[in-house]
Design goal:
By secondary structure, the chain is mainly alpha-helical. The protein has 3 helices and no strands. Among the domains are: 7-37; 39-76. It has helices at residues 7-34, 39-49, 52-80.
Length: 99
């Protein structure tokens, strides 16, 4: 499993994911419009139905998923041997030439 972990590759993957989410949101808005509904007012009505308990459950599920993803990411980095140094490396000493 040779995944490219360069910063450019990670940024490209993140941008692709952002673009996909935006397309999905636009598709949802189009669905509401096709059904004769205003997307903004529909979201507001659905948000009003969300009780604090349901919001807390959704937040808890989100945080758990986020933690699972971060744990998996750390495991993948460790498996690939790409751990960040814990402290800055010591500066190298200049060689002293003997005469």
């Amino acid at each position: 499993m040779a995944a490219d972990t360069s910063p450019e590759s990670i940024m490209a993957q993140a941008q692709a994911l952002i673009d996909q989410v935006q397309r999905d949101l636009d598709a949802g808005d189009a669905l509401y419009r096709d059904l004769g509904l205003d997307p903004d007012s529909t979201r507001a009505a659905l948000q009003a139905q969300l009780t604090p308990e349901l919001h807390a459950q959704a937040r808890e599920a989100f945080e758990k998923d986020k933690q699972d993803i971060e744990d998996q990411f750390r495991e993948d980095l460790a498996r690939a041997g790409l751990t960040a140094p814990s402290k800055s490396p010591k500066p190298t000493r200049r060689p002293r030439f003997m005469v």
